[in-house]
């Protein structure tokens, strides 16, 4: 009976260690995916900051859309 209990306990330990290894591998993959996503997020934030720069927006408005600041005579002030 004692030998059978030892065998069962050994099998439980082997199963637990195997499950632990599988979960550790899965955790490692998820951490790598998280790190990759954090790197991509940083790149996207940098790209967004570059595209949203006021100088660049002003340049695009002037070049592509033909926009310009109104002259003094073109400005109308409306008072309530």
Automatic annotation (TrEMBL):
Alphabetical GO biological process terms: FtsZ-dependent cytokinesis
Coiled coil start-end: 20-47
Source organism per UniProt: Montanilutibacter psychrotolerans
Annotated GO CC locations: cell division site; plasma membrane
Encoding gene, per UniProt annotation: ftsL
Species classification: Bacteria, Pseudomonadati, Pseudomonadota, Gammaproteobacteria, Lysobacterales
Self-association and partners: Part of a complex composed of FtsB, FtsL and FtsQ.
Compartment(s) of residence: Cell inner membrane; Cell membrane
Superkingdom, taxonomy of origin: Bacteria
Protein known as: Cell division protein FtsL
């Amino acid at each position: 009976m004692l030998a059978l209990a030892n065998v069962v306990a050994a099998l439980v330990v082997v199963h637990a260690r195997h499950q632990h290894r599988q979960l550790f591998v899965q955790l490692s993959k998820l951490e790598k995916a998280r790190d990759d996503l954090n790197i991509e997020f940083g790149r996207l934030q940098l790209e967004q900051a570059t595209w949203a720069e006021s100088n660049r927006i002003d340049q695009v408005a002037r070049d592509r859309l033909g926009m310009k600041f109104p002259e003094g005579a073109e400005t109308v002030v409306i008072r309530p």
